[in-house]
Amino acid sequence: MQDKYNHIELERAAHEHWNARDAYRVTEDDSKKKFYACSMLPYPSGKLHMGHVRNYTINDMLARQLRMKGYNVLMPMGWDAFGLPAENAALKNKVPPAQWTYDNIAYMKKQMQSMGLAIDWSREIATCDPDYYRWNQWLFLKMLDKGIAYRKTQVVNWDPVDQTVLANEQVIDGRGWRTGALVEKREIPGYYLKITDYAQELLEHVQVGNDKATLTGWPDKVRLMQENWIGKSSGVRFAFTHGIQDAQGQLIQDGKMYVFTTRADTIMGVTFCAVAPEHPLAMHAAAGNPALAAFIEECKKGGTTEAELAVKEKEGMPTGLFVTHPLTGAQVEVWVGNYVLMGYGDGAVMGVPAHDERDFAFAKKYDLPIRQVVAASGESFSTEAWADWYGDKQKAVCVNSGALDGLTHAQAVDKVAELLAAKGLGEKKTTWRLRDWGVSRQRYWGTPIPIIHCADCGAQPVPEKDLPVVLPQDLVPDGSGNPLVKSEAFHAGVVCPCCGKPARRETDTMDTFVDSSWYFMRYCDAKNSAQMVGAGTEYWMRGNGMDQYIGGIEHAILHLLYARFWTKVMRDLGLVTFDEPFSQLLTQGMVLNHIYSRRTAKGAKEYFWPKDVEHVFDDAGKIVGARLKAEVDSADGLLPVGTAIDYEGVGTMSKSKNNGIDPQELIEKYGADTARLYTMFTAPPEATLEWNDAAVEGSYRFLRRVYNYGVKLLGGDYAAADAVGASARDLKNVAFGKDAQALRREIHTVLKQVDYDYQRMQYNTVVSGAMKMINALEGFKGTDTPDGQIAAIEGFGILLRCLYPATPHVTHALWSGLGYSQHLGELLDAPWPQVDAAALVQDEIELMLQVNGKLRGSILVAATADKAEIERVALASEAFVKQAAGATPKKVVVVPGRLVNVVV
Ligand code: ANZ
Ligand code: ZN
């Protein structure tokens, strides 16, 4: 063992040791309790960022600690290797996406290895590998067979200049990212998966407060986000009747304009109706009304997602058409409203401006009547500004509503549903926000959809025996659309599976969310060439899926929901037995750093690296600005030291803001252990982490301190190493003196807390526990007595094991260098330290001594002392004798464990 903490040497040696042992390869073993801990798989973007380091270190701490506790732990890794960035890079560098992707994977894998992660690399998968994506295709065909996958037209973004379909993220402010051309919406055929068939089950298992919920190990925040996304909504669906006919003289929609409402109790407050721009009535009216047609075109341009609509100014236009109110018979005017979604409910709403905020805004803008029909007594009504006149749901009742007057919300809804049902015009209905999952992408770098198009037979599934449909690896996108369309090799020799005539392949590929919907199962059966999943998946995922999933909150909705759906489909196809993929979820917080910027002479914003900037403080120590502490080359030429810079506060690390910290530099300078320790210690896993260079230094110094303590512990006499191990084993036979007992009490008390913190994955306080331990060890004076040395050796052994999951390299070096390994085995599998209950027992305790209620000193008594004994010690104490000056005590009050008060 070296005398100085040399992180480079020591981390290299540790890696060699673990590699030689193939230390992280695991197999299914029924004699042990399994634990499957997995991080969301990374996109191979080029290099690791700090968020990765944090994510994988959390995962690694969990895996290493549980392994010491005797679990069979799987920690796998893979690559979310398909997707748009690879195509963009290919376009820019003129190399095939495959090459870019595999180069990145190789580099990032090396980085992960340098971090010392306990990954079983024998199970590594890249989703762009045909051995993986063939199973996407296989399952897709099964879904097609079961009707879970189906084909229908979908709306896509079309760039008229590049003549290509754009992904949503390629549309910026309504324009194509490369051409700047106004993006059009086009309808083309595509494939959908019926996730809506699973809406109820997806909701029940996740919903907070639902007694069928099984995902109780997820953060409530995420559970709520899923619930809202699924969006179950109970209400009434009913029709306004009309006699409007199309050009052929047919009644449009059979003369019924259906609406969905959650507030049927407000039906007497309807003053208009609004339909979506794509609604048949809107289109009918537009045919003879150019102004309306232009308005509808305008509506179609912008985004059509709910989020986009929510922030849009409410706009509309009357159609000149009228429909009949089903209960009053009144004629109600139909408007086209840009806030009405064609894809939700029936694409039409009843407008109740008094009780719906959007309708209110609309009515104010277009001067439509507002009629209050619900009131809670004592509340006044104003049409000046929006107020939720629903008021207290418990107390509110219908007013101005004829037969409904006096009814509560629930009663009124029942009554309205009844009245409408009697007329055959409506009934109660549940509506879901969740839509079917459109999986077709008009992109090259993805899983080919296994379909063959025949001029005679239409779309035909590729026969199972012909899977996988292999994606050509050598194409380079040129910006003019999907290169698969033009690839002769891709279509060569393809014949219709049905009639045998020459045919063409489907050129759409699958949404990359398909790849991430089940990769975690494939890790369990990574080498299975006969099946998608098998015994491995049953072993690692049995029960309620994997035991711990760790990843970013940005995947709280779509990825998790799609993976849950995919799992349930696999279950229904008999491929797995569990219902849910992830029983526990931890969403780690973002890594933040300071953001510094400045306006250039031309008014553009320039960002500066934190390393070039220092804060300017006011007298009270508050940050009031920033200035350069180094010369920086800027758009305005070289800026001198001292140039004033704007401080924008902290934000997520990002390339565009120059505030990222490259983990590679950190690892090279301080070592992987410091990078790991820093990210674990600075904040609890789920909180945001604010970067602080000084604290990185501090982490390094702490590890050096631990190392130096270890070196000193045996006074450089490594021959004594054997004794270390031996004594660490035979503690029962040691008679510990007072000082040694105090040290052991401190160490074991902290260990107890550390144990608990490991259980709840609060790794920042695990690290502070280790810091407390080193403080206690360094402060301990009795190392030169035989019992003292044993207590110190024991204590240090506990410290090393507590710290090991966070900083495996330095602890490994000390553990084996000092000889612990000879008796307790390698640190990898060393037994987790047990709290010694006897060490926690306090022999003597200190009580405050008061005389007439005033603090006068303290006394030491046996921890087991009774009241009489405490009284005796108190009255005999020097402090009391001096204070009482001969007076006789009248009364003695003992507060157990705290104080004794003598009244004289
Ligand atoms: C009248 C009403 C009165 C409404 C009132 C609300 C409050 P959730 O809970 O999200 O399901 N709606 C129905 N279809 C729509 C569509 N295609 N586009 C936009 N809005 C639509 O919301 C259901 C409510 O959203 C429905 O209840 C309807 O407005 C509106 F005081 O009907 B309500
Ligand atoms: Zn055919």
Automatic annotation (TrEMBL):
Name of the molecule in the record: Leucine--tRNA ligase
Any Pfam family the entry gives: tRNA-synt_1
Domain Aminoacyl-tRNA synthetase class Ia: 652-685
Catalytic activities: tRNA(Leu) + L-leucine + ATP = L-leucyl-tRNA(Leu) + AMP + diphosphate
Compartment(s) of residence: Cytoplasm
Organism classification: Bacteria, Pseudomonadati, Pseudomonadota, Betaproteobacteria, Burkholderiales
GO cellular component terms, semicolon-separated: cytosol
Coiled-coil regions listed in the entry: none
Methionyl/Valyl/Leucyl/Isoleucyl-tRNA synthetase anticodon-binding domain sequence ranges: 742-866
Gene Ontology MF: a single term: ATP binding
Enzyme Commission number, as recorded: 6.1.1.4
InterPro entries reported for this sequence: aa-tRNA-synth_I_CS (IPR001412), aa-tRNA-synth_Ia (IPR002300), Leu-tRNA-ligase (IPR002302), Leu_tRNA-synth_edit (IPR025709), M/V/L/I-tRNA-synth_anticd-bd (IPR013155), Methionyl/Leucyl_tRNA_Synth (IPR015413), Rossmann-like_a/b/a_fold (IPR014729), tRNAsynth_Ia_anticodon-bd (IPR009080)
PROSITE patterns named in the record: AA_TRNA_LIGASE_I
Motif range ('HIGH' region): 42-52
Binding-site residues for ATP, renumbered to this chain: 655
